[in-house]
Amino acid sequence: AGITCGYFLIPFSTFFSATLLGKAGIKMAIQTSFIIISFTESYLKMVIELIAGIPKFGELLEPHITGYFEQQRTKLKLGQDSSDGGLVSFLLTCLVTGMIVYFVISTINSLAQQHLIKELKQQSSTEGKKDK
Question: Is-above-0.70 flag for pTM?
């Protein structure tokens, strides 16, 4: 998001205030709610009952969601490292790395073009002065 804001010349204060509001306000509230729900048995049962009440899909989703919450609760309580993401994680890492490398190369290319244009303008202005 920061790269995009820089590209479109959005002021830093606007970018930073929106990021701060999003991260500190919204994301933190959602994560806190999720942790409270997943560690409080009564809230977890209430959420699972709400999901089970969904027509047609609730009964199919209930065992999967219950298993997922139990698995996540166990991981969080035991402090297990979930760094093994498999093929999808590897591919996403490669994609992000490729995007960063492309950004660095395009930035260097853009700076080199700007420098060349500046030198050509200086050269043409000095030649124009010599001709007079």
Answer: no
